[in-house]
């Protein structure tokens, strides 16, 4: 009987300790999302639709590993900004425990369907450094992205020259990691050289192609601008956002 009481006491003690540990575990504070320190790159694509959609990809830099729940937060305005630039904040939750002290990258994307006509660009914020502004022209960027490819034949063969041009097209179909891209193309120019002592018989064929999904347009220097903030960033706009 005494042994049974002792066993019962031990079991109760173990249960109490387990419940206490569980309570501590449950009450352990969770990390809150913060704006990442630095923005490394911003890329975008306007997808052809009516109205168009904006696909935005952002890469940021954090001081350690272990950051989770990375999001790209789009600012909601009471009224659209006069300059037509949409603000974004790249946020992530820092680690709560021990983390690798190695500078790391975090990535997030945002797909904005039914993009308003007033949007002329985006401004992606980092907490300390690397704010980046990207300008774009919806009307211009909605134009089909076409690329030209040329093939030649030293035998004057149209089929051989066309095959060479199509081979170059096929090499670029998978650009950007697209595995199932298709294309439409047409011959836009043919030219050649014949005669001479060497007996030239060269034929050149140039094709123009459009990929589905579209190739991403390359940004010019005028479209992309890097801005380094001095001190704390402030905005005079009327904003309606969650606490930062």
UniProtKB/TrEMBL annotation:
Residues 1-26 form the signal peptide. Keywords: Signal. It comes from the Bacteria. Residues 235-244 have a biased composition (Basic and acidic residues). Residues 211-244 are annotated as: Disordered. This is Uncharacterized protein. Residues 218-229 have a biased composition (Basic residues). It comes from Gimesia panareensis.
């Amino acid at each position: 009987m005494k042994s049974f009481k002792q066993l019962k006491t031990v079991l109760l003690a173990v249960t109490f300790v387990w419940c206490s540990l569980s309570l501590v575990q449950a009450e352990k504070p969770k990390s809150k999302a913060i704006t990442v320190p630095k923005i490394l790159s911003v890329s975008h694509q306007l997808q052809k639709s009516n109205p168009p959609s904006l696909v935005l990809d952002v890469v940021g830099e954090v001081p350690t590993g272990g950051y989770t729940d990375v999001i790209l937060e789009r600012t909601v305005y009471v009224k659209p900004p006069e300059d037509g630039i949409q603000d974004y904040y790249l946020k992530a939750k820092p680690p709560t425990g021990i983390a690798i002290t190695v500078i790391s990258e975090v990535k997030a994307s945002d797909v904005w369907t039914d993009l308003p006509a007033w949007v002329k660009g985006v401004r992606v914020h980092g907490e300390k450094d690397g704010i980046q502004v990207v300008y774009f022209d919806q009307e211009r960027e909605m134009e089909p992205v076409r690329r030209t490819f040329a093939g030649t034949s030293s035998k004057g063969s149209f089929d051989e020259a066309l095959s060479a041009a199509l081979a170059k097209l096929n090499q670029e179909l998978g650009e950007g990691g697209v595995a199932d891209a298709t294309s439409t193309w047409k011959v836009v120019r043919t030219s050649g050289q014949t005669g001479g002592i060497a007996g030239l018989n060269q034929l050149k064929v140039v094709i123009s192609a459009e990929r589905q999904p579209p190739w991403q347009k390359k940004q010019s220097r005028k479209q992309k601008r890097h801005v380094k903030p001095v001190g704390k960033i402030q905005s005079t706009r009327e904003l309606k956002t969650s606490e930062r």
